[in-house]
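QA checklist item 7 of 12: single-chain prediction sanity check.
[x] sequence parsed
[x] length recorded as 627
[x] structure emitted
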Amino acid sequence: MLLDHINSPEDLRKLTYHQLDILSGEIRKFIIEKTSLTGGHLASNLGVVELSIALFRTLNMPKDKIIWDVGHQSYTHKILSGRKDEFENLRKMGGISGFPKRNESPFDAFDTGHSSTSISAGLGMAQGRDIKGEDYTVVSVIGDGALTGGMAYEALNNASHIKKNFIIILNDNNMSISRNVGGISNYLNGLRTDEGYNRLKRDVESGLRAIPKVGDIIADKVKQTKNSLKQMVIPGMFFEDMGLTYLGPVDGHDIRALERALKDAKKLDHAVIIHVLTKKGKGYAPAEKEPWRFHGVEPFDIKTGKSLAVKKGKSYTQVFSDTLIELAKEDKSIVAVTAAMPDGTGLSEFAKKYPDRFFDVGIAEEHAVTNAAGMAAAGLKPVVAVYSSFLQRGFDQIVHDVCLQNLPVVFAVDRAGLVGSDGETHQGIFDISYLSQIPNMKVLAPKNDTELKLMLKYAFNDGGPVAIRYPRGTAYTGLEEYKDEIETGHSEIIKDGEEIAFFALGSMVSTAEHICSKLELEGYNPSLVNARFAKPIDKDMLDQLSKNHKIIVTLEENVQRGGMGQACCSYLHNRHPEVKLINISLPDAYIEHGDVSALREMLKIDSDSIIMKLKEEGVFELISKRN
């Protein structure tokens, strides 16, 4: 296999175009095989194989820099930069990440994981290069979907001012190859990147403007006419009008054409955008047919494309979806908003059922939040369904546009807590901290599937902003007998014991339940309280527990700083200093990728580790066993 001999860009440059076509097929086969075992991002990676090869052959890597927007299309990049032998442990703890990581390889120029960032980062890197007087090429690759994010346009606006080379590649995988690919497009691209042509254009314009009285008028008329003609034959006038040179469209699976466009782009002394047309999922029939289903995959059967993951029951996402549809049937004012994640957030079925009440705003979380605020101000009851790590992007809008006005927007915060294999950029471990500090916001987390339903019903009737956070994966179905209606700031007693109480939130309630069972076997009689609210905390319950408990243990799947545990600690310190509080939470750090169970053990928030921590804290020396 050719792939066995490819470990660096130099190895690529020795191959003929025929061999490169063979290599492209081998890389696709490699990615399909490895991803079928480990899971990962498949369709997006299959679409950029030739583009990655062309970049590595044309650029001087790793001196030159490639910044992949989001980064979930970087597998070929990793393979070509000498990491193919590490794909056995892709996205596993201690293995390589599914995203670019600067600490993983000098070929990874910038850590990415969220969308619409690559142009801003690339422009900053190019500006740093120019200020330091260095000489290297910077390429930002961004997808057509990421261009729905406003940050990308802010960056494009600024990129027009750069006076040296900066290349932006628009990876457009939502279109078939247009007629502009071919002779006329190639001719125009070559003409417009020719230095003689550009010098002549500048000289003609300056000469016209030098004519007394009428020079400026003539020059402006000529430019206006030229732009009108250009609009008819060049499809990138939107970018041209922003001050960027547009090249393309280019067939994203033709390495020769890609290399020609890249070489042309490198000649220019300003920002240039290359429009590349690719097919998402290329080379794997199931992914070509349903690219959205093969965006992020669990281990799957290559022959059929079917997932090998064993379904254990409804996920929290599915519970949210089903409940929302039920509530919307009775309440016509309920509407749903998502930021390009209708499948991931469970809104696809709602969209089919109530298309006029469903809004996908694209990758634009900031807009999603303020858009929902506007709907709420107009008398609707919007729910914004979003992953925890993506909601961070709309923080200012939550503060200013929702909470300041105390508007009834519900935030369904999916993927809260540890999410596993996607790693640092996707762990939902900050939402309690950043949401709890905002006035008027209430933050809840369900212990099981039934409680999520109750919380959604409560949220739509509350009349103010409410966030409900719930984890990825199968919904817990234990403790079903405990299902009191939700009251603002009220927790729920699961087990009434003495001396030591566990005050647990959301996913950690089941963990606390296991801890209590183990301690009971050792002769202790612990209490268990389902906190329900991260904000406001149940101060009355803390007062009650302080009467007959020496120790209160708070448990949450969120970083310690700004979490529920700190709020409880502050209250108890002021009101009940005699009570010892132990805060079980995640460290104030970014958490690497890996299996969630393995991460919980590593971070010591599993039941056995927590019991060990309590022993180390001397807890059991302070409390008594039952008689």
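[x] summary fact logged: The chain is about 40% helix and 15% strand.
[ ] second reviewer sign-off
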